[in-house]
């Protein structure tokens, strides 16, 4: 018998997404988002939810583009800082010592320090309540060579992405492999 | 200098969501979804993306409700099985030995074996391409007492949820705490 905890946003795991945008005068900015992820395989799309009060909200509406960087163990301090400071008050890239790179395909920047980055063009905007959901089409993925496996694809144990626990506001590491998809369940077929 | 990997759905981590629905004759069904997560804090909403060809697609359209169970290390075989078999061909609950429980607030079932479950009422449907995004308002969260911390909230290290690596189709464990949110970044303020 389960206990009822009420209507709450208790889902695990969530990612730690670094949403990169340009402000009105071209200052690069980053936001820390846990509400987001892949939402379509073809065309490849990603969603990030942003409060209307955020600097990033105006930036995405204006430029119709954003990037999504994957925060990892090596960048946990920078990733958390991005979620505390506001781009209206400070140049977060400069304050955190992050290296600004202009997107190749979209009008949005990213930080070189995040090992995996998605360049996204805004496709849909959905007002849900306190958050607005922005859906971007992924036009390119960029990766550091150091995180690629022998097959040329990103290796999660090399990326070491942060796993966010919303209930206790904790950033966790990714642990060991516990099963292979499309394989572990075959014994029940 | 990063390498370009093209337009692909390479984002980590993603969750392993067990989407519970009723079929046309009332047979309970489960789908394994990695494309989904929280998308609004108030009203609390969750998104799951489903291909139109899936049994779950028709079920959500018909009943306008679904549940989201969190798959964990203890249920990795069942969770993967759910992603291999189709509810059109087999009663997945029966085949996997899962215990069917009717949702308390919505017209959808869940499996008792998943330690954390969200009951959701369909709010929005967005056709994106090969996937359709369903957004549900979370009307209740149900949790096993064994996964609750001393503060009464779910403890990620007790849940032991699966972390999915889409590039290499691997289910991973959650690792140790590497930083506290709204705290680790203060040294850069």
UniProtKB/TrEMBL annotation, chains A, B:
<comment type="similarity">
    <text>Belongs to the flavoredoxin family.</text>
</comment>
<dbReference type="InterPro" id="IPR002563">
    <property type="entry name" value="Flavin_Rdtase-like_dom"/>
</dbReference>
<dbReference type="InterPro" id="IPR052174">
    <property type="entry name" value="Flavoredoxin"/>
</dbReference>
<dbReference type="GO" id="GO:0010181">
    <property type="term" value="F:FMN binding"/>
</dbReference>
<protein>
    <submittedName>
        <fullName>Flavoredoxin</fullName>
    </submittedName>
</protein>
<dbReference type="GO" id="GO:0016646">
    <property type="term" value="F:oxidoreductase activity, acting on the CH-NH group of donors, NAD or NADP as acceptor"/>
</dbReference>
<dbReference type="Pfam" id="PF01613">
    <property type="entry name" value="Flavin_Reduct"/>
</dbReference>
<dbReference type="InterPro" id="IPR012349">
    <property type="entry name" value="Split_barrel_FMN-bd"/>
</dbReference>
<keyword id="KW-0285">Flavoprotein</keyword>
<feature type="domain" description="Flavin reductase like">
    <location>
        <begin position="10"/>
        <end position="164"/>
    </location>
</feature>
């Amino acid at each position: 018998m389960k206990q009822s905890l009420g209507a709450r946003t208790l889902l695990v795991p969530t990612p730690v997404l670094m949403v990169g945008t340009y402000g009105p005068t071209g200052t690069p900015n980053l936001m820390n988002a846990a509400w987001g992820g892949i939402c379509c395989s073809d065309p490849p799309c990603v969603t990030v939810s942003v409060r209307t009060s955020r600097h990033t909200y105006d930036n995405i509406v204006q430029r119709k583009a954003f990037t999504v960087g994957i925060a990892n163990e090596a960048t946990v301090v920078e990733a958390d800082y991005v979620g505390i400071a506001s781009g209206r008050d400070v140049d977060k890239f400069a304050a955190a010592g992050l290296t600004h790179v202009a997107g190749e395909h979209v009008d949005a920047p990213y930080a070189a320090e995040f090992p995996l980055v998605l360049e996204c063009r805004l496709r849909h905007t959905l007002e849900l309540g306190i958050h607005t959901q922005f859906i971007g089409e992924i036009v390119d993925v960029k990766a550091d060579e150091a995180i690629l496996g022998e097959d040329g694809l990103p290796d999660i144990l090399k990326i070491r992405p942060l796993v966010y626990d919303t209930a206790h506001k904790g950033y966790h590491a990714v642990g060991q492999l516990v099963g292979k998809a499309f394989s572990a369940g075959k014994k029940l077929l």
